[in-house]
Amino acid sequence: MFAQHLLTMADSFRTSDIHILPEQKHYDIYFRLNGQMDKQFYLDREEGSRLISYFKYRSNMDVGEKRRPQSGSMTFHLKEKAVDLRFSTISNYQSQESLVIRLLKQKDANQQEIGAFFRYEWEVLKKLVDAKSGLLLFAGPVDSGKTTTMYHLVKNRLDGEKQQVITVEDPVEIEEVTFLQTQVNETAGISYEHLLKSSLRHHPDVIIVGEIRDEETAKMVMRGALTGHLIVASIHAKNCRGVISRLLELGISQTILEQTLIGVAFQNLIPLYCSLCESNCQTYCSHYPRDQKRAALFEVKTGAPLKDWFNTNCSESANNQKGQRDFNHLLEKVKMYGYISEKTYHRYLISNQ
């Protein structure tokens, strides 16, 4: 069965997404590997339509509806394991459907170390996650490794010591037996806010929040940090400074932020330059291992530099003083060391930082 073969292959490649995309007279299937779209299969139009219909049926979507976007989910059983899948369909103006399949729980949080360009920021994060209480926030685009980073840091914090760690996610992306993992289910009335309230009553040592996406979640996170818990969470923002702006937009006062926030990190996974490929290291190149073709670049703000952002009397020039190790500064260093290409540098450069 082709669907079984497709998912087995994607799982073995540790791909994050499968893209089934319509062309003029056929369908192409791509795997997103290390942030790059890699073409794997060619199907004629009838085969591609049947494959999409099969996945729509298995994930309880309306097979006959091809005009409006749909989403669904399911657990697919392979020969030796089960994988959780999330589906999204959308049609083009010619009523040709495309399907994106997201494979969950494919990331490994048990690797010995996160591949980072600079050790300094990683060591700062390890110290921050050892705090008794407070709020540590991570920002970065989709597929930038935020969840893997949060899990890895918190798991290392335990280091043989029994602590209660609760995660609140939508959905759970990494299975970790040492954590108490909870998942949002809006259909059943289980929201981020509901799970956070319940988690706080459980008196955990650490709470990992998958994403702060609304005012209610933001307020519950702040309440937890104020009552003596360490909360590690992600939030969408353009850079470290954007995290502060985002929280202010969500109705969190500057006073509360100053009392709770112990650190802010922005990260991205940057593809490595390969001298054999003479470009970013390609999927089948052996120069770098398949799961090490990208490395994490972190910007971390804590202590005095973070406090300066709340000081309205602090001049912009002081905030941008040399040596602050902001993301663009570190990205330029990585380029100068030859780890990334000029094209990659301009692609990941944050404008107007």
UniProtKB/TrEMBL annotation:
Superkingdom in the source lineage: Bacteria
Protein's UniProt keywords contain Nucleotide-binding: yes
Record-level GO cellular component terms: plasma membrane
PROSITE patterns: T2SP_E
GO molecular function annotation: ATP binding; ATP hydrolysis activity
Record key words, sorted: ATP-binding, Nucleotide-binding
Domain Bacterial type II secretion system protein E: 200-214
A Pfam family hit: T2SSE
Similarity comment: Belongs to the GSP E family.
NCBIfam families, alphabetized: ATPase_ComGA
Name of this protein: Competence protein ComGA
